[in-house]
Sequence to fold (521 residues):
Amino acid sequence: MPERKNDLEGEYFSLKQLLQGIFSKLQPLFSTDCAAITLYQNDDEHIARSYIALRNCKGEFIAEQLIRDPVAFSSITREISGFQFPVLRSAEDWMAEFGNNHHIINHPEEYLYHCYIPLEANNRIMGTFEIHNLDQQFSSEALNYCCSISDLVSGLLTALQPLPALPTGEELLSTIRKQQAELEKYKKELDKHLQYFAEESAEPYHYPDMAGNSREMQQVFKLLDRMSSSDTTVLILGETGTGKELIARAIHQQSPRKDQPMIKINCAAVPRNLIESELFGHEKGSFTGAMERRIGKFELADRGTIFLDEVAELSPDLQVKLLRVLQEKEIERIGGKSTIATDVRIISATNRNLFNEVEAGRFRTDLFYRLNVFPIELPPLRNRRLDIPALAAYFLERFSSKSGRKINGFSKKVMACMMAYNWPGNVRELEHLIERQVILTEQPVITELAIPEGGKGLLAQHVTGEIIKTVMENERDHILAVLERCNGKVSGPHGAARLLGIPATTLNSKIKKLGLSKKHK
Fold:
Protein backbone atom coordinates (compact mmCIF):
# COMPACT_ATOMS: atom_id res chain seq x y z
CA MET A 1 0.00 0.00 0.00
CA PRO A 2 2.71 2.63 0.73
CA GLU A 3 3.89 2.44 -2.90
CA ARG A 4 0.42 3.46 -4.09
CA LYS A 5 0.47 6.52 -1.81
CA ASN A 6 3.84 7.67 -3.20
CA ASP A 7 2.52 7.21 -6.75
CA LEU A 8 -0.33 9.57 -5.96
CA GLU A 9 1.92 12.21 -4.48
CA GLY A 10 4.10 12.37 -7.54
CA GLU A 11 1.34 12.08 -10.15
CA TYR A 12 -1.17 14.72 -9.11
CA PHE A 13 -0.53 18.40 -8.51
CA SER A 14 -3.85 20.03 -7.71
CA LEU A 15 -6.54 19.31 -5.20
CA LYS A 16 -9.07 18.32 -7.85
CA GLN A 17 -6.59 16.08 -9.63
CA LEU A 18 -5.56 14.58 -6.31
CA LEU A 19 -9.14 13.74 -5.42
CA GLN A 20 -9.74 12.16 -8.80
CA GLY A 21 -6.61 10.07 -8.35
CA ILE A 22 -7.61 9.07 -4.84
CA PHE A 23 -11.00 7.89 -5.99
CA SER A 24 -9.54 5.99 -8.93
CA LYS A 25 -7.24 4.13 -6.53
CA LEU A 26 -9.79 3.55 -3.79
CA GLN A 27 -12.65 2.38 -5.96
CA PRO A 28 -11.09 -0.82 -7.33
CA LEU A 29 -9.40 -1.64 -4.03
CA PHE A 30 -12.26 -1.10 -1.62
CA SER A 31 -15.37 -0.64 -3.81
CA THR A 32 -15.59 3.01 -2.76
CA ASP A 33 -18.83 4.56 -3.95
CA CYS A 34 -18.22 8.19 -3.03
CA ALA A 35 -15.21 10.23 -1.91
CA ALA A 36 -15.11 13.91 -1.02
CA ILE A 37 -12.87 16.57 0.43
CA THR A 38 -14.68 19.28 2.34
CA LEU A 39 -12.74 22.45 3.13
CA TYR A 40 -13.73 25.27 5.46
CA GLN A 41 -13.76 28.60 3.69
CA ASN A 42 -12.57 31.94 5.13
CA ASP A 43 -12.28 30.47 8.63
CA ASP A 44 -16.08 30.23 8.72
CA GLU A 45 -17.30 26.83 9.82
CA HIS A 46 -20.76 27.55 8.41
CA ILE A 47 -19.54 27.95 4.80
CA ALA A 48 -17.49 25.21 3.15
CA ARG A 49 -16.32 24.46 -0.37
CA SER A 50 -16.36 20.79 -1.35
CA TYR A 51 -14.64 18.89 -4.13
CA ILE A 52 -16.63 15.72 -4.83
CA ALA A 53 -15.95 12.49 -6.68
CA LEU A 54 -18.77 10.01 -6.79
CA ARG A 55 -20.65 7.51 -8.99
CA ASN A 56 -19.25 4.16 -8.02
CA CYS A 57 -18.06 2.71 -11.31
CA LYS A 58 -17.71 5.73 -13.60
CA GLY A 59 -15.61 7.86 -11.25
CA GLU A 60 -17.32 11.00 -12.49
CA PHE A 61 -16.15 14.29 -10.99
CA ILE A 62 -18.73 16.85 -9.94
CA ALA A 63 -17.61 20.48 -9.74
CA GLU A 64 -17.21 22.35 -6.46
CA GLN A 65 -20.26 23.18 -4.41
CA LEU A 66 -21.00 25.49 -1.50
CA ILE A 67 -22.54 24.12 1.68
CA ARG A 68 -24.76 26.70 3.30
CA ASP A 69 -26.57 24.79 6.02
CA PRO A 70 -25.08 26.12 9.27
CA VAL A 71 -26.93 23.79 11.62
CA ALA A 72 -26.25 20.52 9.86
CA PHE A 73 -22.74 21.30 8.67
CA SER A 74 -21.48 22.78 11.94
CA SER A 75 -22.69 19.75 13.88
CA ILE A 76 -20.74 17.45 11.56
CA THR A 77 -17.53 19.48 11.63
CA ARG A 78 -17.61 20.02 15.39
CA GLU A 79 -17.80 16.30 16.02
CA ILE A 80 -15.10 15.35 13.51
CA SER A 81 -12.66 18.08 14.57
CA GLY A 82 -12.56 16.64 18.07
CA PHE A 83 -10.92 13.42 16.85
CA GLN A 84 -7.46 12.61 15.52
CA PHE A 85 -8.66 9.37 13.88
CA PRO A 86 -11.48 8.28 11.50
CA VAL A 87 -15.08 8.77 12.58
CA LEU A 88 -17.40 5.98 11.40
CA ARG A 89 -21.16 6.32 11.06
CA SER A 90 -23.84 3.91 9.88
CA ALA A 91 -26.80 5.04 7.79
CA GLU A 92 -29.07 4.85 10.83
CA ASP A 93 -26.74 6.99 12.89
CA TRP A 94 -26.40 9.45 10.02
CA MET A 95 -30.12 9.91 9.53
CA ALA A 96 -30.70 10.17 13.28
CA GLU A 97 -28.11 12.93 13.64
CA PHE A 98 -28.26 14.87 10.36
CA GLY A 99 -31.24 13.73 8.32
CA ASN A 100 -31.18 14.82 4.65
CA ASN A 101 -29.42 18.14 5.33
CA HIS A 102 -25.93 17.15 4.10
CA HIS A 103 -26.04 18.39 0.51
CA ILE A 104 -22.72 16.81 -0.54
CA ILE A 105 -24.60 13.55 -0.90
CA ASN A 106 -27.92 13.89 -2.66
CA HIS A 107 -29.42 10.82 -1.01
CA PRO A 108 -27.43 9.98 2.15
CA GLU A 109 -29.93 7.34 3.19
CA GLU A 110 -28.79 5.23 0.25
CA TYR A 111 -25.29 4.87 1.71
CA LEU A 112 -25.01 2.41 4.56
CA TYR A 113 -21.51 3.31 5.74
CA HIS A 114 -19.82 6.69 6.20
CA CYS A 115 -16.18 7.49 7.18
CA TYR A 116 -14.84 10.97 8.08
CA ILE A 117 -11.13 11.71 8.56
CA PRO A 118 -10.08 15.18 9.81
CA LEU A 119 -7.59 17.14 7.68
CA GLU A 120 -5.09 19.19 9.67
CA ALA A 121 -2.85 21.97 8.34
CA ASN A 122 -0.85 24.53 10.32
CA ASN A 123 -2.05 23.00 13.60
CA ARG A 124 -5.76 23.48 12.90
CA ILE A 125 -8.53 21.40 11.30
CA MET A 126 -8.98 22.59 7.69
CA GLY A 127 -11.69 20.18 6.65
CA THR A 128 -12.55 16.50 6.24
CA PHE A 129 -11.76 13.63 3.91
CA GLU A 130 -14.97 11.60 3.43
CA ILE A 131 -15.69 8.13 2.06
CA HIS A 132 -19.20 6.76 1.63
CA ASN A 133 -20.07 3.17 0.69
CA LEU A 134 -23.40 1.84 -0.41
CA ASP A 135 -23.20 -1.65 1.04
CA GLN A 136 -19.64 -2.55 2.15
CA GLN A 137 -18.15 -1.89 5.57
CA PHE A 138 -14.69 -0.34 5.90
CA SER A 139 -11.94 -2.86 6.63
CA SER A 140 -9.03 -1.98 8.90
CA GLU A 141 -6.73 -2.10 5.86
CA ALA A 142 -8.93 0.38 4.04
CA LEU A 143 -9.04 2.72 7.03
CA ASN A 144 -5.24 2.63 7.43
CA TYR A 145 -4.78 3.41 3.77
CA CYS A 146 -7.32 6.25 3.97
CA CYS A 147 -5.48 7.73 6.94
CA SER A 148 -2.28 7.71 4.89
CA ILE A 149 -4.13 9.44 2.07
CA SER A 150 -5.47 12.06 4.49
CA ASP A 151 -1.89 12.79 5.63
CA LEU A 152 -0.95 13.40 2.00
CA VAL A 153 -3.91 15.75 1.51
CA SER A 154 -3.06 17.60 4.75
CA GLY A 155 0.48 18.16 3.50
CA LEU A 156 -0.84 19.53 0.23
CA LEU A 157 -3.22 21.85 2.08
CA THR A 158 -0.32 23.21 4.11
CA ALA A 159 1.64 23.89 0.94
CA LEU A 160 -1.35 25.61 -0.69
CA GLN A 161 -1.98 27.99 2.22
CA PRO A 162 -1.79 31.57 0.91
CA LEU A 163 1.09 33.77 2.02
CA PRO A 164 0.19 36.58 4.43
CA ALA A 165 -0.48 39.92 2.81
CA LEU A 166 2.45 42.33 2.72
CA PRO A 167 2.07 45.28 5.09
CA THR A 168 1.42 48.72 3.65
CA GLY A 169 3.94 51.54 3.90
CA GLU A 170 2.02 53.14 6.74
CA GLU A 171 1.91 49.84 8.63
CA LEU A 172 5.64 49.39 8.16
CA LEU A 173 6.31 52.92 9.40
CA SER A 174 4.15 52.32 12.46
CA THR A 175 5.98 49.06 13.20
CA ILE A 176 9.36 50.76 12.85
CA ARG A 177 8.32 53.53 15.24
CA LYS A 178 7.22 50.99 17.82
CA GLN A 179 10.51 49.12 17.48
CA GLN A 180 12.47 52.37 17.82
CA ALA A 181 10.57 53.17 21.01
CA GLU A 182 11.37 49.69 22.36
CA LEU A 183 15.05 50.08 21.43
CA GLU A 184 15.21 53.46 23.17
CA LYS A 185 13.66 51.90 26.26
CA TYR A 186 16.21 49.06 26.26
CA LYS A 187 19.04 51.55 25.67
CA LYS A 188 18.07 53.51 28.77
CA GLU A 189 17.92 50.29 30.78
CA LEU A 190 21.33 49.28 29.43
CA ASP A 191 22.81 52.68 30.37
CA LYS A 192 21.53 52.23 33.91
CA HIS A 193 23.10 48.78 34.16
CA LEU A 194 26.41 50.01 32.72
CA GLN A 195 26.51 52.86 35.23
CA TYR A 196 25.73 50.44 38.03
CA PHE A 197 28.48 48.02 36.99
CA ALA A 198 30.97 50.88 36.61
CA GLU A 199 30.25 52.00 40.17
CA GLU A 200 30.33 48.43 41.41
CA SER A 201 33.69 47.74 39.79
CA ALA A 202 35.14 50.83 41.47
CA GLU A 203 34.70 49.32 44.92
CA PRO A 204 35.79 47.24 46.65
CA TYR A 205 39.31 47.06 45.24
CA HIS A 206 40.62 43.58 44.36
CA TYR A 207 44.06 42.33 43.39
CA PRO A 208 45.14 38.85 42.31
CA ASP A 209 46.39 36.61 45.14
CA MET A 210 45.39 39.17 47.77
CA ALA A 211 42.16 38.68 49.68
CA GLY A 212 41.03 41.64 51.70
CA ASN A 213 37.63 43.20 52.24
CA SER A 214 38.63 44.70 55.56
CA ARG A 215 38.84 48.45 55.91
CA GLU A 216 42.60 48.28 56.43
CA MET A 217 43.29 46.36 53.21
CA GLN A 218 40.84 48.45 51.23
CA GLN A 219 42.92 51.49 52.17
CA VAL A 220 46.03 49.70 50.91
CA PHE A 221 44.33 48.82 47.62
CA LYS A 222 43.27 52.43 47.15
CA LEU A 223 46.87 53.56 47.55
CA LEU A 224 47.94 51.03 44.94
CA ASP A 225 45.35 52.32 42.50
CA ARG A 226 46.36 55.95 43.00
CA MET A 227 49.96 55.24 42.09
CA SER A 228 49.21 52.81 39.24
CA SER A 229 50.56 55.09 36.48
CA SER A 230 53.45 56.65 38.44
CA ASP A 231 57.13 55.74 38.65
CA THR A 232 57.55 56.77 42.27
CA THR A 233 59.94 55.15 44.73
CA VAL A 234 57.91 53.09 47.22
CA LEU A 235 58.65 51.95 50.77
CA ILE A 236 56.52 49.04 52.07
CA LEU A 237 56.35 48.70 55.85
CA GLY A 238 54.96 45.73 57.73
CA GLU A 239 55.67 42.77 59.96
CA THR A 240 57.17 39.58 58.59
CA GLY A 241 54.61 37.58 56.62
CA THR A 242 52.17 40.41 55.88
CA GLY A 243 52.63 40.14 52.11
CA LYS A 244 55.12 42.88 51.28
CA GLU A 245 56.44 41.05 48.21
CA LEU A 246 52.90 40.56 46.88
CA ILE A 247 52.30 44.29 47.19
CA ALA A 248 55.60 45.04 45.42
CA ARG A 249 54.66 42.70 42.58
CA ALA A 250 51.20 44.30 42.29
CA ILE A 251 52.80 47.75 42.06
CA HIS A 252 55.13 46.56 39.31
CA GLN A 253 52.44 44.73 37.34
CA GLN A 254 50.23 47.80 37.05
CA SER A 255 53.06 50.26 36.37
CA PRO A 256 54.41 51.48 33.00
CA ARG A 257 57.35 49.09 33.58
CA LYS A 258 55.15 45.97 33.76
CA ASP A 259 56.60 44.53 30.52
CA GLN A 260 60.14 44.72 31.95
CA PRO A 261 61.60 42.45 34.66
CA MET A 262 61.10 42.82 38.39
CA ILE A 263 64.28 41.69 40.15
CA LYS A 264 64.07 40.94 43.88
CA ILE A 265 66.75 40.49 46.51
CA ASN A 266 66.46 39.82 50.23
CA CYS A 267 69.13 42.00 51.79
CA ALA A 268 69.02 39.99 55.04
CA ALA A 269 69.53 36.63 53.30
CA VAL A 270 72.80 37.49 51.51
CA PRO A 271 76.08 37.47 53.49
CA ARG A 272 77.51 40.93 54.12
CA ASN A 273 80.65 40.21 52.10
CA LEU A 274 78.57 39.25 49.04
CA ILE A 275 75.68 41.71 49.12
CA GLU A 276 77.55 44.46 47.22
CA SER A 277 78.43 42.03 44.41
CA GLU A 278 74.82 40.83 44.29
CA LEU A 279 73.52 44.38 43.97
CA PHE A 280 76.10 46.00 41.68
CA GLY A 281 78.08 43.14 40.15
CA HIS A 282 81.84 42.70 39.86
CA GLU A 283 84.60 42.45 37.31
CA LYS A 284 86.72 39.35 36.76
CA GLY A 285 89.59 39.18 39.28
CA SER A 286 88.26 42.02 41.39
CA PHE A 287 88.55 39.86 44.54
CA THR A 288 89.49 36.33 45.50
CA GLY A 289 87.09 33.91 43.86
CA ALA A 290 85.93 36.37 41.18
CA MET A 291 86.69 34.04 38.28
CA GLU A 292 84.48 35.89 35.82
CA ARG A 293 82.55 39.11 35.44
CA ARG A 294 79.14 39.12 37.17
CA ILE A 295 76.14 41.30 36.34
CA GLY A 296 74.44 42.71 39.44
CA LYS A 297 70.74 42.98 40.24
CA PHE A 298 70.55 46.66 39.31
CA GLU A 299 71.84 45.98 35.80
CA LEU A 300 69.44 43.05 35.41
CA ALA A 301 66.55 45.30 36.44
CA ASP A 302 67.42 48.06 33.94
CA ARG A 303 64.18 49.71 32.66
CA GLY A 304 62.30 47.53 35.13
CA THR A 305 61.86 47.34 38.91
CA ILE A 306 64.14 46.20 41.70
CA PHE A 307 62.61 45.04 44.99
CA LEU A 308 64.92 45.44 47.99
CA ASP A 309 63.37 43.34 50.75
CA GLU A 310 64.60 43.92 54.32
CA VAL A 311 66.44 47.06 53.21
CA ALA A 312 67.11 48.03 56.85
CA GLU A 313 69.64 45.18 57.06
CA LEU A 314 72.09 46.93 54.70
CA SER A 315 75.41 47.94 56.23
CA PRO A 316 76.24 51.67 56.50
CA ASP A 317 78.71 51.58 53.59
CA LEU A 318 76.15 49.89 51.32
CA GLN A 319 73.56 52.45 52.38
CA VAL A 320 75.91 55.12 50.99
CA LYS A 321 76.24 53.31 47.66
CA LEU A 322 72.47 52.79 47.43
CA LEU A 323 71.98 56.49 48.11
CA ARG A 324 74.29 57.28 45.18
CA VAL A 325 72.21 55.08 42.88
CA LEU A 326 69.08 56.97 43.92
CA GLN A 327 70.75 60.35 43.40
CA GLU A 328 72.93 59.79 40.33
CA LYS A 329 71.00 57.00 38.57
CA GLU A 330 74.23 55.08 38.00
CA ILE A 331 76.15 52.15 39.49
CA GLU A 332 79.74 50.91 39.54
CA ARG A 333 80.73 47.26 39.57
CA ILE A 334 83.28 46.05 42.11
CA GLY A 335 86.65 46.41 40.42
CA GLY A 336 85.15 48.45 37.61
CA LYS A 337 86.79 51.59 36.18
CA SER A 338 83.65 53.35 34.95
CA THR A 339 80.06 53.95 36.00
CA ILE A 340 77.03 52.40 34.32
CA ALA A 341 73.82 54.38 33.85
CA THR A 342 70.76 52.62 35.14
CA ASP A 343 67.04 53.27 34.81
CA VAL A 344 65.41 51.38 37.66
CA ARG A 345 62.37 51.90 39.83
CA ILE A 346 63.17 51.05 43.45
CA ILE A 347 60.62 49.41 45.74
CA SER A 348 61.99 48.63 49.18
CA ALA A 349 60.48 46.90 52.20
CA THR A 350 61.29 46.30 55.83
CA ASN A 351 59.74 44.79 58.94
CA ARG A 352 61.59 47.25 61.16
CA ASN A 353 60.49 50.67 62.36
CA LEU A 354 62.76 52.85 60.24
CA PHE A 355 62.05 55.92 62.38
CA ASN A 356 63.57 54.10 65.35
CA GLU A 357 66.46 52.86 63.19
CA VAL A 358 67.20 56.43 62.06
CA GLU A 359 67.07 57.76 65.62
CA ALA A 360 69.36 54.96 66.76
CA GLY A 361 71.85 55.84 64.01
CA ARG A 362 71.59 52.47 62.29
CA PHE A 363 69.96 53.86 59.15
CA ARG A 364 70.94 56.98 57.22
CA THR A 365 68.45 59.83 57.42
CA ASP A 366 69.05 60.97 53.82
CA LEU A 367 68.53 57.44 52.51
CA PHE A 368 65.37 57.10 54.57
CA TYR A 369 63.84 60.18 52.95
CA ARG A 370 64.92 59.00 49.50
CA LEU A 371 63.17 55.66 50.03
CA ASN A 372 60.15 57.00 51.90
CA VAL A 373 58.67 58.96 48.98
CA PHE A 374 55.48 56.85 48.92
CA PRO A 375 55.13 54.69 52.05
CA ILE A 376 52.60 51.86 52.27
CA GLU A 377 52.04 50.24 55.66
CA LEU A 378 50.56 46.74 55.72
CA PRO A 379 48.46 45.80 58.77
CA PRO A 380 49.24 42.59 60.67
CA LEU A 381 46.69 39.80 60.28
CA ARG A 382 45.52 40.17 63.89
CA ASN A 383 44.34 43.69 63.01
CA ARG A 384 42.27 42.53 60.05
CA ARG A 385 40.66 39.36 61.34
CA LEU A 386 37.66 39.73 59.03
CA ASP A 387 39.97 38.78 56.14
CA ILE A 388 40.90 35.44 57.73
CA PRO A 389 37.95 33.40 56.29
CA ALA A 390 38.65 34.61 52.74
CA LEU A 391 42.40 34.04 53.07
CA ALA A 392 41.86 30.59 54.57
CA ALA A 393 39.46 29.63 51.77
CA TYR A 394 41.94 30.83 49.14
CA PHE A 395 44.83 28.83 50.60
CA LEU A 396 42.63 25.76 51.10
CA GLU A 397 41.53 25.76 47.47
CA ARG A 398 45.10 26.27 46.25
CA PHE A 399 46.68 23.50 48.31
CA SER A 400 43.82 21.00 47.93
CA SER A 401 43.94 21.45 44.14
CA LYS A 402 47.72 21.07 44.17
CA SER A 403 47.48 17.82 46.15
CA GLY A 404 44.60 16.49 44.05
CA ARG A 405 42.28 16.25 47.03
CA LYS A 406 38.75 17.54 47.57
CA ILE A 407 38.47 19.41 50.88
CA ASN A 408 35.33 21.50 51.17
CA GLY A 409 36.09 23.82 54.07
CA PHE A 410 36.62 24.22 57.80
CA SER A 411 34.53 23.22 60.78
CA LYS A 412 33.07 25.99 62.94
CA LYS A 413 35.50 25.08 65.71
CA VAL A 414 38.53 25.44 63.44
CA MET A 415 37.27 28.73 62.04
CA ALA A 416 36.73 30.04 65.57
CA CYS A 417 40.30 29.03 66.44
CA MET A 418 41.68 30.84 63.40
CA MET A 419 39.67 33.95 64.21
CA ALA A 420 40.90 33.92 67.83
CA TYR A 421 44.57 33.11 67.20
CA ASN A 422 47.00 36.05 67.29
CA TRP A 423 48.99 35.02 64.16
CA PRO A 424 52.47 36.29 65.05
CA GLY A 425 53.65 35.04 61.64
CA ASN A 426 50.75 36.80 59.89
CA VAL A 427 49.49 35.62 56.48
CA ARG A 428 52.56 33.47 55.83
CA GLU A 429 51.91 31.52 59.04
CA LEU A 430 48.27 31.02 58.04
CA GLU A 431 49.38 29.83 54.60
CA HIS A 432 51.85 27.27 55.98
CA LEU A 433 49.40 26.08 58.63
CA ILE A 434 46.67 25.35 56.06
CA GLU A 435 49.17 23.65 53.75
CA ARG A 436 50.11 21.35 56.63
CA GLN A 437 46.45 20.66 57.53
CA VAL A 438 45.63 19.72 53.91
CA ILE A 439 48.36 17.07 54.10
CA LEU A 440 47.28 15.76 57.52
CA THR A 441 43.49 15.72 57.23
CA GLU A 442 41.68 12.58 56.09
CA GLN A 443 38.20 14.10 56.02
CA PRO A 444 36.37 16.32 53.50
CA VAL A 445 36.31 19.10 56.11
CA ILE A 446 39.23 20.29 58.25
CA THR A 447 38.20 19.67 61.86
CA GLU A 448 41.55 20.10 63.67
CA LEU A 449 44.06 22.93 63.70
CA ALA A 450 47.72 22.07 64.31
CA ILE A 451 48.72 25.28 66.08
CA PRO A 452 52.47 25.30 66.91
CA GLU A 453 53.34 24.60 70.56
CA GLY A 454 54.35 28.19 71.18
CA GLY A 455 50.98 29.49 70.07
CA LYS A 456 48.64 27.13 71.91
CA GLY A 457 48.45 29.42 74.91
CA LEU A 458 46.89 32.03 72.67
CA LEU A 459 44.05 29.60 71.97
CA ALA A 460 43.48 28.30 75.50
CA GLN A 461 40.31 30.35 75.83
CA HIS A 462 39.11 30.43 72.23
CA VAL A 463 35.69 29.07 73.23
CA THR A 464 35.23 31.34 76.22
CA GLY A 465 33.01 34.36 76.23
CA GLU A 466 35.99 36.69 76.53
CA ILE A 467 37.60 35.66 73.24
CA ILE A 468 34.30 35.38 71.37
CA LYS A 469 33.40 38.81 72.62
CA THR A 470 36.66 40.19 71.27
CA VAL A 471 35.95 38.78 67.81
CA MET A 472 32.43 40.21 67.91
CA GLU A 473 33.80 43.56 69.00
CA ASN A 474 36.21 43.57 66.08
CA GLU A 475 33.34 42.77 63.72
CA ARG A 476 31.19 45.46 65.31
CA ASP A 477 33.90 48.10 64.93
CA HIS A 478 34.49 47.13 61.31
CA ILE A 479 30.78 47.29 60.40
CA LEU A 480 30.49 50.67 62.11
CA ALA A 481 33.44 52.01 60.14
CA VAL A 482 31.99 50.80 56.83
CA LEU A 483 28.56 52.25 57.66
CA GLU A 484 30.16 55.61 58.40
CA ARG A 485 32.06 55.45 55.13
CA CYS A 486 28.81 54.72 53.27
CA ASN A 487 26.91 57.48 55.13
CA GLY A 488 24.72 54.92 56.87
CA LYS A 489 23.47 53.33 53.64
CA VAL A 490 23.13 49.54 53.86
CA SER A 491 21.96 48.36 50.40
CA GLY A 492 22.52 49.49 46.83
CA PRO A 493 25.68 49.87 44.74
CA HIS A 494 27.15 52.35 47.25
CA GLY A 495 25.87 50.55 50.35
CA ALA A 496 27.86 48.97 53.16
CA ALA A 497 26.62 45.47 52.28
CA ARG A 498 28.27 45.60 48.86
CA LEU A 499 31.53 46.92 50.30
CA LEU A 500 31.54 44.12 52.89
CA GLY A 501 30.67 41.51 50.26
CA ILE A 502 27.55 40.22 52.05
CA PRO A 503 23.78 40.42 51.32
CA ALA A 504 21.96 43.44 52.74
CA THR A 505 19.66 41.13 54.74
CA THR A 506 22.71 39.54 56.40
CA LEU A 507 24.15 42.94 57.26
CA ASN A 508 20.84 44.09 58.76
CA SER A 509 20.78 40.91 60.84
CA LYS A 510 24.33 41.57 62.07
CA ILE A 511 23.46 45.19 62.89
CA LYS A 512 20.59 43.95 65.04
CA LYS A 513 22.63 41.13 66.62
CA LEU A 514 25.54 43.43 67.50
CA GLY A 515 23.20 45.99 69.02
CA LEU A 516 24.19 48.85 66.76
CA SER A 517 22.22 52.06 66.97
CA LYS A 518 19.40 52.52 64.46
CA LYS A 519 20.92 55.81 63.38
CA HIS A 520 23.81 53.94 61.77
CA LYS A 521 21.45 52.27 59.35
Remarks:
- The longest helix spans residues 169-202.
- The first strand starts at residue 34 and ends at 41.
- The chain has 19 helices and 17 strands.
